[in-house]
Amino acid sequence: MARGYRNAAGIGGGDGGHGADAWPAEQEGEGGETLWRVEVRGLPPVTGVCDITGLEALGVTEAVASAGGRVTIYLPSSDTQYDFAIDGLSFHALVADSPAIAWYETGMTVDGVDLGTDAETQGWSYDGATGILSLMEANRTYTLRGTNAVWDVVVDVEAKGVKVIGDRLHVNSVNGNSFVVAKNASLTIASGTLKAGAVTNRVTVLGGSIDASLAAPVDAFGTSLHKVVLRGLEPGSGISGVSMITGDSETSSLANYDFSSIFADDAGSIYLWLPDGDYEFAIGDVNYAATVAGEDTEASSFRYTGVYINGVDAGKPHGFCWSNDCGRVVLYNVSDRWGDQGFKTDYVITGTNTGAAVCFSVEVDEQVYITLDNLVMTNPEMTASPFQVSSNESSLFRLAGSLRGLSPPPNEVSQSLFYHRLARGFVSRA
After folding, report:
1. Domain count of the chain?
2. What's the helix, strand, coil split of the chain in %, to 5?
3. CA distance 199 to 179
4. Which of 15, 36, 94, 204 has its CA at 20 to 30 Å from residue 264's CA atom?
């Protein structure tokens, strides 16, 4: 529909490459009624005619978008909202005896308002033609929610002190840069759940699950952060009861890390950002342990066993000179596992295996003492021998207190165990 042309119903109009100001605020319809200008913004720039659906009863079926992605149509006043689509993209308009601006639903909101709404006076604006969401108000916290399924979005941070809360936010950006922080601006991700592409320039993280590529992320103390992935959670589930069991609670970002409004993604994962250190988490009945050492890492899930190796529960992924592989705990000394190469240690194993079932495999290269101190291994889930020792190992078992629940008995810990020490007695290799 060319500029100035009226269709059979006398109600349609197109921008035709001109701005809305070139159109009068109102026109007279064929029936003598007043038609008000409705500006439609945010369309991709096109060179041809746009198809309009939903307004056929008013005779408006097509128009031409301007270079800026805008279309102008004329509609009569109505007590109800107009719902229509232009080339498959949905728009809405309220016309009440004055010119109107149509809005569209991007699927993403800022403080509860869809990006497609004209919001330049609310401290932010969105340009559907360029896909740029500008956050312009300094020292303000914005809550971003939803997913931009159709419309491209790049969040442009233009002021200092901007904080963002991600409320199940997923930012799809064609060029991969989801957040662009201006040179003299600053961005803090405060909490929530956020999935995005790259975040350019330095960003401060105070909490939340953030599945994104962050440039030089730091905590409130300016300490560098790295991504820690926790897997194996229920997809889409809200995370409650996240607690830090270990870590430097007084000096690290975990002291004030905001775990609120965190949801596992479709893969059942969450993404925390932490400084270097050793950490242990509890999320419901799932436990995680992670070591951050200058790079992104994945946390290992585990279940407590009730059996302790030198004071550390054997269910954890690893300890000094031992590691847990799905319930099989390997004791070793000369090895490159977990950075323990060149070290050895004696072991004191104690406790009652009331948690996850566990068994031990002794793989030492030098003589070590393994003290079984009041150890109870009666977990019905474990059918294998609690201890398996290779024939070439140089391990000495000694009993402190009592030992029960082993099957076979202590003097037959495994067929490959050739000697052991129980209390004061010593049985040498046969």
Report:
1. 3
2. 5, 45, 50
3. 5
4. 204
Residue 402, exposed/middle/buried by CB under 10 A (0-12, 13-18, 19+)? exposed
Same domain, 147 and 249: yes
Instruction: Identify the DSSP state of 238.
Output: B
Q: Could you please report the per-residue DSSP string of 174-225? A: TTSEEEEE-TT--EEEEEEEEEEEEEEEEEEE-BSEEEEEEEEEE-TT--B-
Burial label, 74 (beta-carbon count in 10 A; 0-12, 13-18, 19+)? buried
6/222 Cα distance (integer angstroms): 62
Residues 253, 220: contact at Cβ < 8 Å?
yes
Residue-wise pLDDT tens digits, 347-365: 899 998 888 888 888 887 6
Tell me: do 81 and 172 sit in the same domain: no
Q: What is the pTM of this model?
A: 0.71
The residue whose two tokens read 């720039």 is 45
Domain encompassing residue 185? 108-302
Structural domain contains residue 120: yes
- Determine phi and psi for 231, rounding to 5 degrees: -110, 175
Q: What is the mean pLDDT of residues 273-282?
A: 87
166-219 confidence digits (pLDDT tens)? 999 999 887 789 999 998 999 999 999 999 999 998 899 999 999 999 989 999
- The length of the chain is 430
CA distance 231 to 245: 18
